């Protein structure tokens, strides 16, 4: 099964809706709660990264009984230094985003902690593609 969501940059009113829809589908499919929790953390963080940093993007969830693969693609500024961006607390979010309670620099580290496999491809001034896979460990 595949679900795809269009995400608009700076659309905080709808932020989290894709992750909520993915959660609903996984629960209806009978996916174990621990797997659902990990997938939703990954999906939510990827969704928020698009909202905060990009003009627009997509979140695609590829769901099978064995695993869930989340792919986030965005048209945004890109990540110039991926290892630095993976450090807890590092953030390029502007002050007005931080004042809203976002941009604490925990998004990519949280994704890494909850995914069994993570790949990040990014080109400055072009965008970023993140693929995170969560295995259904039954």
UniProtKB/TrEMBL annotation:
All copies of domain Histidine kinase/HSP90-like ATPase, residue ranges: 13-131
**Name by which UniProt lists this protein:** Anti-sigma regulatory factor
Q: Which InterPro entries match?
A: HATPase_C_sf, HATPase_dom
Which superkingdom, per the lineage?
Bacteria
């Amino acid at each position: 099964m595949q679900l795809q969501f269009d995400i608009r940059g700076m659309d905080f009113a709808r932020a989290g809706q894709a992750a909520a829809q993915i959660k609903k589908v996984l629960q209806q499919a009978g996916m174990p709660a621990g797997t659902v929790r990990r997938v939703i953390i990954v999906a939510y963080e990827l969704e928020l990264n698009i909202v905060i940093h990009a003009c627009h993007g997509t979140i695609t969830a590829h769901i099978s009984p064995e695993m869930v693969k989340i792919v986030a693609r965005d048209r945004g500024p890109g990540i110039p230094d991926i290892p630095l961006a993976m450090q807890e607390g590092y953030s390029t979010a502007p002050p007005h985003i931080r004042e809203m309670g976002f941009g604490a620099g925990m998004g990519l580290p949280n994704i890494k902690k909850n995914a069994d496999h993570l790949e990040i491809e990014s080109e400055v001034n072009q965008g970023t593609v993140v693929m995170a896979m969560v295995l259904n460990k039954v």
